[in-house]
Amino acid sequence: MKVAIVGATGYGGAELIRLLNHHPEAEIVTLHSSSQQGLKYSESYPHLHDIWNDNLVDINPEEMAKKVDLVFLATPSGISSKLTPQLKEQGLKVIDLSGDLRLKNSEDYERWYKKDAAPNEILEEAVYGLPEWFKEEIQNAEILANPGCYPTAVTLGLAPLLQQDLIALDTLIIDAKSGVSGAGRSPSAATHFAELNDNFKIYKVNQHQHIPEIEQTLRRWNEAVQPITFSTHLVPMTRGIMATMYAKAKSEFSTEQLLEIYYEAYHEKPFVRVRPKGVFPSTKEVYGSNYCDIGLAYDERTGRITVVSVIDNLVKGAAGQAIQNFNIMMGLDERTGLNFIPVYP
Amino acid sequence: MKVAIVGATGYGGAELIRLLNHHPEAEIVTLHSSSQQGLKYSESYPHLHDIWNDNLVDINPEEMAKKVDLVFLATPSGISSKLTPQLKEQGLKVIDLSGDLRLKNSEDYERWYKKDAAPNEILEEAVYGLPEWFKEEIQNAEILANPGCYPTAVTLGLAPLLQQDLIALDTLIIDAKSGVSGAGRSPSAATHFAELNDNFKIYKVNQHQHIPEIEQTLRRWNEAVQPITFSTHLVPMTRGIMATMYAKAKSEFSTEQLLEIYYEAYHEKPFVRVRPKGVFPSTKEVYGSNYCDIGLAYDERTGRITVVSVIDNLVKGAAGQAIQNFNIMMGLDERTGLNFIPVYP
Amino acid sequence: MKVAIVGATGYGGAELIRLLNHHPEAEIVTLHSSSQQGLKYSESYPHLHDIWNDNLVDINPEEMAKKVDLVFLATPSGISSKLTPQLKEQGLKVIDLSGDLRLKNSEDYERWYKKDAAPNEILEEAVYGLPEWFKEEIQNAEILANPGCYPTAVTLGLAPLLQQDLIALDTLIIDAKSGVSGAGRSPSAATHFAELNDNFKIYKVNQHQHIPEIEQTLRRWNEAVQPITFSTHLVPMTRGIMATMYAKAKSEFSTEQLLEIYYEAYHEKPFVRVRPKGVFPSTKEVYGSNYCDIGLAYDERTGRITVVSVIDNLVKGAAGQAIQNFNIMMGLDERTGLNFIPVYP
Amino acid sequence: MKVAIVGATGYGGAELIRLLNHHPEAEIVTLHSSSQQGLKYSESYPHLHDIWNDNLVDINPEEMAKKVDLVFLATPSGISSKLTPQLKEQGLKVIDLSGDLRLKNSEDYERWYKKDAAPNEILEEAVYGLPEWFKEEIQNAEILANPGCYPTAVTLGLAPLLQQDLIALDTLIIDAKSGVSGAGRSPSAATHFAELNDNFKIYKVNQHQHIPEIEQTLRRWNEAVQPITFSTHLVPMTRGIMATMYAKAKSEFSTEQLLEIYYEAYHEKPFVRVRPKGVFPSTKEVYGSNYCDIGLAYDERTGRITVVSVIDNLVKGAAGQAIQNFNIMMGLDERTGLNFIPVYP
């Protein structure tokens, strides 16, 4: 299977290369960039010295169609909305890591992203690639919208509660924390080392563009889901997301009962690990891997459930999940090329 | 004013020395330790080389009473419950930075701390030293219970909402994050560098001993406060606490209206700074200082208020607030010796 | 004494404000910026919210002369070479924190900085402000060149060896390490959090512009000093410099003998602390303070001396030393306003 | 090929598991620990939840010989000196990651490690496993001493200079820096997060136990090598070593000429990457991989060569190199199971 990567200069693109290098069935043919075409890629990413020696190539759908079967788009928002129709026209399959194709309602996209939405027929065709829950649709997808990093952690953490209608919907609070690689590779005051190191920040309060994506997925499980409260914080670390989620249980539970429900929901999903009672995952425990680890507790004092979900934002939150979707689209075992043990410590 | 510090080998004790060094009215006479008496203090803390050249002294209330007027206890929990009665007997005033004297109900202490509580007459006499709201009581205190780090950030952040009955009490969620110095100076697997660096953890879910302390203070403002949901996370940084707090508003607000209420509540409190609309504090912005900075927003989509409160856990969350209380007890301006600008970056 | 700060938006400028705030004799009247005039300063530095409420002012030497006696220049290189003559013309004293006025030989400046040098009469007049060794000149200075961060750590560490001719000059190696705040506040790929965190880099090998500055100072003590080998590394931390320095001793020593020489050299210098045998300083032990801490050892196996010198690059390496020079220029005790205990941990 | 790991609770052991998991020819049969036998291993390392579900087993050479062919010893110093003879007696091959079997001279071991040395016949038999230079010996080894982390970075960086006699031997200085995982997993004041974060330390000045190991290897290439000056520093990061090395060239060179010599020396060694002129590696560029990356420069001003060598201390500095040696001992391609791309960022 031959693939190309567009937007290879970002962290999502670099992570695709790291992971696909181990993939027995996929071969990266070309790396593309609109801004840095012609540059030797390993000058931008010296960790690939002697590993990837080619230059970045410009983006020409017609030429790409001659060489590859599928294109990974690891571009900033606002690119794949325009590029996907051109790639589709050339008969190319697309896996889009950006937010452009995730929201079914183009008004939502324009409100939260403040950019023009992709054409409606593309939005309708695009399959939202959360493999643990939408595997059948993914199997037939030709255009795949890879979920956002936060939405992956959040929806995997909440799925059993919503699917089985266990919580009072108006009590849901999601407090999420991310490492700084999630902000991308473009330098800015907000990602300047001396401003972030030994510091902890909150950002985009009530305004994060992942809010409508989370709501859209939750509503597939329960239409009555109300507008959610979702906060995002920046942790002085490179990789990792933790979502801490709170909701009132509809009835009394024990932590054991809830864990049983989660084990049941996830024991056949190879990349979701549910932790035993009293144990909660930390972000480093999934570092560099495609796992989403979940811990939870029921508090008898308050009647509230706390669910903790962690991922590596560049793997399960981006490139790893994209490859998991690629595997499913191609009829491969979804674990192909993704059986990395987390890098610890 | 002559003072002694007991428990000088911990971070709270070291921070008292840093801050009192600038205090024009207080003089540290002796540093005490039960475990390391006789040790030259600057061998334990080389940043004090040539600044504090004396040795650590053992703890003898009778001898201490001959030399000082007041004792700061910066000890682990379980010490001041026993030591405070002895110091009181010698006529010494006490400011206790540990959790031993904060909870009025000794059963609460024993349940959450799993240790024997202090005698009831001590618990009754001890004044809870949150200077922004209990200044009058502090003025007459002889035994002062200095608030915990998390409770300081949380209660300052929530006070106006509860005092003015603005939120639905059963909707309150507190998601708190702390730097690692809050865990003290004793080495452990949980504070080992390679386990924490580039990592983000949740700990003591539903079990943190600051839960009853927060509830006790909130109930002084509104007796109907229910058991709270309070989570604590460890951030890979040295100093700083952020509490992100969520609650449904009882009626519709604008962010401006809420900020106005907070400005009104705090504009005469020198160490609380309320940020303008759209701006939220980060922990580094109070690093090394006695400030508590607060930002907030009302979300029209959800009807929820998000309040963000940050402190330096070792200053406003420990030694700085202890000195602020000392100032009030001694009839000084509460800012005396505490007018540090945060260290940034 | 009324002062102005030009280049207030950089870290050196912000640190001058933090430190001068405690200075009993200096008053900051205005903050100046060429790029951000009109901006409310605390919007750029929110840690100064409610502390410094004024806007940034443009740079007009004539107007400045009406209001202040002395100007601190905390500008990037290439500014004060042009601005200092104008300020001098208005009768203003100048303390320049940039590299523009440090090198006596304008060809050296142009070679290493790749910019036009300041006029020769300015370079001749400018006094190099290393207070521990050039105090008398500083007392009469009207234009002061504040030393670079690396040169401060290096020359204080080496002074006794060179002044007393104890080492073979052609064996001197300086391996220096710095926190990232030394790179300034402008975002760049080189200071992007995700590129630096959990990473250690070497930069500007054999090309750092502090090389001629160090050589110039060392040659004041020993004209025979040869071109030095000086390497700089970036440490994933915010503040702090360590210089590890190696040289062959001219004759056999014991570590004790060398320490005695250093104690003798520095015991009357309030900001240099020499550590006892077997103890070496770490950068955090001077964090936020104006200290330079030094440790050393003589190795009998190799005949080499290792000297370790640490400073806070923003304090003794910039703003703190500038104030120390200010004190001396103004006839004050050099410690005035600088008696901060390091912030630890 | 069936293997066992002794000392699995340390970071070296955990890294062996991560890497061997991808090895097509090796199978880990049992994990052993003297201190924590019986413990479920993934309780100690939750990142292995659902991946390694077995318990730790005690150390019984006779039992081990029934199940495996080779034992990796990832134990602290002082263990394998005693255990290796017992394993050998059972016919087991040994790869020892500790320092016990590296020094041929048992007096050196006892002087620098302050422990009893292994029996001389074991020391004589043990092959020092630096695969780039001693591959032939390794092919026939039954007892393999895996090099230390610092010695790996240092000797790979210096090999061409010494083998080709290009430097003045008495001018060699090695300034090395390491991430904190090198200090192991046992908590201590020296590895306490709040003491190390945002801090930079030097340690074991002139006393590091890797000094005789480095000298021993260098003397295989040039007997005249004199006692070296070797300093070690602790960087606030988890993984990575950089060695910055300085020496006077015996004659004049250009940087290009030296790079040519290094390319020649290493172009057939798959895990050593020499960087082009003007480019130096940073530690993150080899993170999680078995690469040793090298950059260098010749300084015409001083006649000195600067060589910079970086490795991941847990991979090329421990577990990865052990597997590279395993591959060679077993007659496999040395890259087998080690073709990981570095994790970046």
From TrEMBL, chains A, B, C, D:
SMART domains the UniProt entry points to: Semialdhyde_dh (SM00859)
Gene3D superfamilies in UniProt: Dihydrodipicolinate Reductase, domain 2, NAD(P)-binding Rossmann-like Domain
UniProt-annotated location(s): Cytoplasm
Swiss-Prot/TrEMBL catalytic activity: N-acetyl-L-glutamate 5-semialdehyde + phosphate + NADP(+) = N-acetyl-L-glutamyl 5-phosphate + NADPH + H(+)
Molecular function GO labels: N-acetyl-gamma-glutamyl-phosphate reductase activity; NAD binding; NADP+ binding
Keywords: Amino-acid biosynthesis, Arginine biosynthesis, Cytoplasm, NADP, Oxidoreductase
Semialdehyde dehydrogenase NAD-binding domain segment(s): 2-141
Pathway info: Amino-acid biosynthesis; L-arginine biosynthesis; N(2)-acetyl-L-ornithine from L-glutamate: step 3/4
EC nos: 1.2.1.38
InterPro entries given in the database record: AGPR, AGPR_AS, AGPR_dimerisation_dom, AGPR_type-1, NAD(P)-bd_dom_sf, Semialdehyde_DH_NAD-bd
Domain of life: Bacteria
The keyword Oxidoreductase is annotated on this UniProt entry: yes
Pfam family, any one: Semialdhyde_dh
GO biological process: L-arginine biosynthetic process
Active site: 149
Cellular component terms per the entry's GO annotation: cytoplasm
Role noted for this protein: Catalyzes the NADPH-dependent reduction of N-acetyl-5-glutamyl phosphate to yield N-acetyl-L-glutamate 5-semialdehyde.
Recorded family membership: Belongs to the NAGSA dehydrogenase family. Type 1 subfamily.
Listed HAMAP family: ArgC_type1
Protein name (record): N-acetyl-gamma-glutamyl-phosphate reductase
Organism from which the protein derives: Calidifontibacillus erzurumensis
Chain's gene name: argC
